[in-house]
Amino acid sequence: QKQLVESGGGLVQAGGSLRLSCADSGSSFSFRLAAMGWYRQAPEKQRELVATITAGGVPNYADSVKGRFTISRDNAKNTVYLQMNSLKPEDTAVYYCRMTRGSDYWGQGTQVTVSS
Question: Which of 30, 47, 50, 72 could be bridged to 41 by S-S, CB 3.0 to 4.6 A?
């Protein structure tokens, strides 16, 4: 059973930084061919895309995080990262990792809280 485990969330003041990690328990071969993404869901809001990265390493960002967040992947570690800088209170949400390779797989989420 594929398992994605997020980590790195927490409480930070506005203007601060966090780095989220998402580790895949599956094979390196499978991870290398998968598109990966970060999504977030704030209370009483729908889940929204934050950033994605293709198997070839091409990133894509939501307009709200462009210039502040950076998605990257380390195929040797089966891990995708989300570096979040200049955090704002509106970035507060549960952040989820998603893997797409044929099927979709989701992590359990990690809470990010940005205080003003």
Answer: 47
Q: Give burial (CB, 10 Å; 0-12/13-18/19+) of 26.
A: middle
Half-sphere exposure of 31 (CA within 13 A, CB side): 19
Q: Are 80 and 50 in contact (CB under 8 A)?
A: no
Query: What is the structure's pLDDT at 28?
Result: 81
Q: What is the DSSP letter of 26?
A: S
Q: Please give the helix or strand (H or E) that residue 30 lies within, else none.
A: helix 28-32
Average pLDDT, the chain: 95
Structure tokens at 35: 């598109």
Overall average pLDDT of the 32-56 stretch: 97
Question: If we measure between CA atoms, which residue out of 31, 41, 78, 38 comes closest to residue 59?
Answer: 38
